[in-house]
Design brief:
Helix content: 40-55%
Distance between the termini: 12 Å
Radius of gyration: 21 Å
Number of helices: 13
Largest sheet: 6 strands, mixed
Number of strands: 6
Strand order of the largest sheet: 3-2-1-4-5-6
Strand content: 5-15%
């Protein structure tokens, strides 16, 4: 199994949960790096992965999705400057810990994770998605795990439908119909998550749904008689939304399974890194323990 970490979620969590008075020798904030290092070290100690990758977002106005829909994520405030500079150090931390890390211009961490999961699945490996982002549910296949490490429990493939009312393979279509407020993606007016899930139970995909809009009136859904006309009216925006909600799984990352194997930490480099950041013995001791774990 490969463990695929959605880094931004945990860097943000560390930024908001750790005391902000941690500084390096130049006065730069380091508390998010410390919290992320503790999270990543705890995860490695617990699961002892042979293969692991950490994916980072690179926010850009020229991103693939912003070009398609300029309002995409426009509702989000820009991260504070003292958080932005810590992301680069979190990437450096991964390298010192012997974990592959990725960022891809114009695309998101979700797309990196989707690409790596697809590559490993082709070689017979299952994936554990370490995230609190529901969007990654669409990548789930039987044997995979969706896990917000340190907070919520694990979700298996069949748990997704029990929790959200829709199978993972139809999750992107479901979000396109209902909209995704967190990403500023509008759905069909009057179509909430329950209605979207009902539609995705009745039809295999958006394509099948739009090929048989007359059949919507026969469903046991509130307002079914007028729902088909409303879906027809918003057809263009729905299919645009699916291009936004669907995770790309074909990025040219130029890496194979061997490049995702976890290596032993570079303890001298890690020690110098912690010296610069002003970190004490806790993380150094953890690093020493990680060096004793068998690597791939």
């Amino acid at each position: 199994m490969i463990f695929l970490v959605d880094a931004s979620v945990y860097v943000f969590r560390a930024y908001h949960s750790m005391l902000p008075d941690m500084r390096d020798r130049d006065g730069n904030s380091t508390h998010a790096v410390f919290g992320f290092a503790r999270f990543l070290g705890d995860l490695i100690e617990r699961v002892r992965p042979t293969h692991m990758a950490v994916a980072f977002d690179q926010r850009s106005k020229e991103s693939y999705r912003r070009r398609l829909f300029p309002a995409y994520k426009a509702n989000r405030e820009r991260p504070p400057e003292d958080l932005t500079q810590q992301f680069g150090r979190c990437r450096e931390l991964c390298r010192h810990l012997g974990v592959a890390e990725f960022v891809y211009p114009e695309y998101e961490a979700d797309d990196i994770i989707g690409t790596l999961a697809g590559m490993m699945r082709a070689s017979g490996e299952r994936s554990a998605y370490i995230t609190r982002d529901k969007d990654l549910a669409q990548l789930m296949r039987d044997g995979d795990v969706l896990w917000d490490f340190g907070a919520r429990g694990q979700f298996g493939y069949h748990d997704i439908e029990r929790h959200y009312g829709v199978r993972p393979e139809r999750f992107a279509d479901y979000l396109a119909l209902a909209g995704d407020e967190s990403d500023n993606i509008p759905g069909v007016p009057g179509v909430g998550h329950r209605t979207a899930a009902s539609l995705m139970k009745a039809f295999a995909s958006l394509d099948d749904l739009y090929e048989d809009l007359d059949g919507v009136a026969e469903l046991k859904i509130r307002g079914a008689g007028t729902l088909g006309a409303r879906l027809a009216e918003h057809r263009e925006s729905v299919f645009l939304a699916r291009r936004l909600t669907r995770i790309s799984c074909d990025l040219p990352l130029g890496v194979g399974a061997a490049g995702l194997a976890r290596r032993k930490p570079d303890l001298p480099g890690l020690g110098r890194f912690y010296d610069v950041l002003g970190f004490g013995p806790f993380l150094r001791q953890q690093g020493a323990r990680l060096a004793q774990l068998p690597a791939a």
